[in-house]
UniProtKB/TrEMBL annotation:
KW ATP-binding (keyword) present: yes
Pfam families: ABC_tran (PF00005)
Matching InterPro entries: AAA+_ATPase (IPR003593), ABC_transporter-like_ATP-bd (IPR003439), ABC_transporter-like_CS (IPR017871), ABC_transpr_LolD-like (IPR015854), MacB-like_ATP-bd (IPR017911), P-loop_NTPase (IPR027417)
Domain ABC transporter: 7-220
Presence of keyword ATP-binding: yes
Assigned GO CC terms: plasma membrane
Record key words, sorted: ATP-binding, Nucleotide-binding, Transport
UniProt protein name: ABC transporter ATP-binding protein
Organism: Cerasibacillus quisquiliarum
One Gene Ontology molecular-function label: ATP hydrolysis activity
Length: 220
């Protein structure tokens, strides 16, 4: 089976801060794999997710995603893949305060011009029901709690049924009940659609529920 991700990073340098991270880091991920990334603060966990998710191309190394060299992709193609092939569950809410929760969740559908597709509408209903956010769909983000916003961000990340989900501390602001809802939905998608799941977490219980754990360590 061909790896969905083949990444070789020589280093990611922060010139203004005078240091580098992810030195000589290599990663291969198979389709449908469940992988967690752990490590102390500052070792490059979020930076690694940004590189995998095509948000950051400023590093030394090579990256093949879906058997295609990322360096060969145009800016438009990078944006298309970020919207349609990769789902981001971000640590920061990143919701648009002027839009309702429903419209925030449906943004990727609007960008792809498929928001009226009946299959997609059914998926939307299933996701918001499963994670329990129907009561807040007509509210604006600032009218919601941190945990409600986190669940809305998760719903937006998975609404396009992406091939890869990148989750940055997806359960950090959730109570145990809602944490279970998020993890179960992640793993349900993995089982049903062979979705590749990569999760950055400080929660060892969450990490251990993945098939493989990568531990990042500070560069000497």
């Amino acid at each position: 089976m061909n790896s969905i991700i083949k990444l070789k990073i020589r280093k990611k340098t922060f010139k203004k801060k005078g240091f580098s991270i992810l030195n000589d880091f290599e990663l291969e991920v198979e389709p449908g794999e469940k992988l967690s990334i752990i490590g102390e603060s500052g070792v490059g966990k979020t930076s690694l997710l940004n590189i995998i998710g095509l948000l950051d191309t400023q590093y030394q190394g090579s990256y093949k995603l879906f058997d295609t060299s990322v360096k060969d992709l145009s800016r438009n193609k990078l944006a298309e893949w970020r919207n349609q092939k990769i789902g981001f569950v971000l640590q920061e809410s990143a919701l648009i305060n002027s839009l309702t929760i429903e419209d925030n969740i449906k943004l990727p559908l609007m960008y792809a011009n498929i928001e009226k597709d009946l299959t997609v509408q059914d998926r939307f209903k299933r996701i918001v029901t499963k994670i329990g956010i129907e009561p807040i769909l007509k509210k604006k983000p600032l009218e919601c709690s941190g945990g409600q916003r986190a669940r809305a961000v998760f719903a937006r990340a998975v609404i396009m049924n992406p091939q890869i989900i990148l989750a940055d501390e997806p359960t950090a602001s959730l109570d145990s009940k809602n944490k279970e809802k998020i993890i179960n939905l992640l793993f349900d998608m993995n089982k049903e659609f062979n979705t590749t799941v990569i999760t950055v977490t400080h929660d060892l219980d969450v990490a251990n529920r993945h098939e493989r754990i990568i531990t990042l360590e500070r560069n000497e």
